[in-house]
Amino acid sequence: MFNSVLLNGRSCLWRSNGGPESSNLKKSLNYDESLNQLAELERLCFSDFWPKNELAAMLDLPYSFAQIFYASTSGEKIVPIGYVIYWQVVDEVQLHRFGIHPERRGCGSGKVILADFCGQWCEISPGKSDASSISLQTSTRSSSQSEANYTFNNFCSKITLEVRENNAPALAVYRAVGFEEVGRRPNYYHDTHEAAVLMDKCIFPHE
């Protein structure tokens, strides 16, 4: 499991892998710094990137989340290497953005990060009452404010996304972690007139 930060509602929610380096990153964690890291990753990953103010406005929505993933460098420095932006609506997670730092592409980081993201959701039926959750440490926008425990419901029945039909690297990563094509939207992207490939990953089998 990666060290990661979950952003929502102007708070940082810390998810630790328990490694010794995680405590140092946690000490420096605050919302503004994490949002800056997210905006920089977004700028590096996409030509049509969403500016910082739009990211902040999106994260103010109660169902909108961003998760930043970190890795250690050879000098034991912790750096952000990838992120996802998603909506959680009832029992469905809608993946809207998935980006890997350009320097980390081509070495399997995307597949590992996406598998880690998908693996944090519970594989249980919606009718059961024992849906688990993960307790994360909350750091508010001001680093001087006290921390609080935050419980995040990590149940969903499926994860959905859409991707350009000619984005072969992304399609390969999605398929490698279990996403399946469920449909297409022809001429969906205005700039290239490509179709959008709709993909789902079921977290538990539907009866």
Automatic annotation (TrEMBL):
Residues 25-204 form the N-acetyltransferase domain. InterPro entries: Acyl_CoA_acyltransferase, GNAT_dom. GO terms for molecular function: acyltransferase activity, transferring groups other than amino-acyl groups. This is N-acetyltransferase domain-containing protein.
